[in-house]
Design goal:
By secondary structure, this protein is of the alpha/beta class. Helices cover 20% and strands 27% of the residues. It is built from four helices and 14 strands. The strands form two sheets. A seven-stranded mixed beta sheet has the order 6-5-4-3-2-1-14. A seven-stranded mixed beta sheet has the order 7-8-9-10-11-12-13. The relative contact order is 0.15.
Length: 207
């Protein structure tokens, strides 16, 4: 399995020449052309995770790809399937397990929108914009490191609860290079406290 991180919270998980794309967006960089995609997963409807034009372009090149989204966003994507907490589905050679329900609160008492996390093959997990714990202990966990809905202490605690073998950054598009360096230091500390490895890759191949 190979995992590639793109901007912010975008990931490509590949094996056997096929791929699963999670939250593909174009902020400062253009995504490569994908022609091997079996599934596209959109964790929630916010623009830093879901860009309709990008999803449409990917699906045009990969017409057999299945798209999974939250119930409040599925209607914005042609033929998207609803991903709900506890749902498991096999797509191509991949097993996808969905978890979670809501986006983390920014204003206390107000849920911004629905949110879904995903575990790919029991190996790679990302919670989207939440600190929902995956239903399995993943080998690799994407951990949000900077957002208006979180504190770095919460990310550190999340690592302790989920206890992955490897931690990688997510939701880092809001940071400057200096900001990522600061966050990396704290996240690395939390990973080391549970004997995990932190791979602070902000754009590029993770595994």
């Amino acid at each position: 399995m190979k995992i590639m991180k793109f901007e912010h919270s975008g990931y490509l998980v590949e094996k056997e020449g096929r791929g699963v794309l999670i939250d593909p967006v174009e902020l400062e960089k253009k995504l490569p052309e994908f022609d091997n995609i079996d599934a596209v997963i959109i964790t929630h409807l916010h623009g830093d995770h879901f860009q309709p034009e990008v999803v449409n372009r990917i699906c045009e090149v990969n017409p057999k790809a299945k798209v999974f989204a939250t119930e409040d966003n599925a209607g914005n994507i042609d033929e998207a399937e609803v991903a709900r907490d506890g749902r498991k589905v096999n797509v191509g050679a991949f097993e996808l397990g969905f978890f979670g329900k809501d986006h983390a609160e920014i204003v206390e008492g107000e849920v911004p929108c629905q949110n879904i996390g995903v575990v790919v093959d029991g190996v790679f997990a990302t919670p989207g914009d939440s600190f929902d714990k995956p239903p399995v202990v993943p080998k690799i966990l994407a951990v949000p490191i900077a957002a208006p809905w979180m504190k770095i202490r919460e990310a550190m605690d999340y690592i302790g609860r989920a206890r992955p073998n490897i931690v990688v950054p997510a939701h880092d598009g809001l940071n400057s290079e200096m900001g990522n360096t600061v966050c990396d230091n704290w996240i690395r500390r939390a990973a080391e406290e549970i004997g995990a490895e932190y791979r602070g890759v902000h754009y590029g191949e993770i595994d």
